[in-house]
Design goal:
about 100 residues, alpha/beta, Rossmann fold, 4-stranded parallel sheet, 4 strands
């Protein structure tokens, strides 16, 4: 089971991407729970996930978010700028798989 949190500034764009990643995971027979969030209250949510995916528009905050995730024992990655384009959900899912593979 892959537990993933996609985070953006307010949670709107991450909600759309999380839905697309869930669909991609289902289509590939990958067991995943993908949720979305803004940055507010992120610290508490980190204890319920394995991977934090950070929206590209938060690149300037990635270092701090990465440190926060590491403190909670969560892998994290900055999503590429084109993740919201067609096929971006598969790129994001592949990133999750690379972060969670043994």
């Amino acid at each position: 089971m892959h537990r993933v949190l996609v985070v953006c500034g307010a949670g709107a764009s991450s909600t759309f991407l999380a839905h697309r990643i869930r669909t991609a995971a289902r289509n590939r027979d990958i067991d995943a729970i993908v949720s979305a969030s803004g940055t507010t209250g992120l610290q508490q949510r980190l204890f319920t996930v394995d991977v934090l995916l950070v929206g590209p528009h938060l690149a300037g905050q990635f270092s701090a978010l990465h440190s926060l995730a590491a403190t909670a024992g969560v892998s994290s990655a900055l999503l590429p700028a084109d993740v919201f384009d067609r096929g971006g959900e598969d790129v994001a899912l592949d990133l999750v798989l690379s972060l969670t593979s043994p």
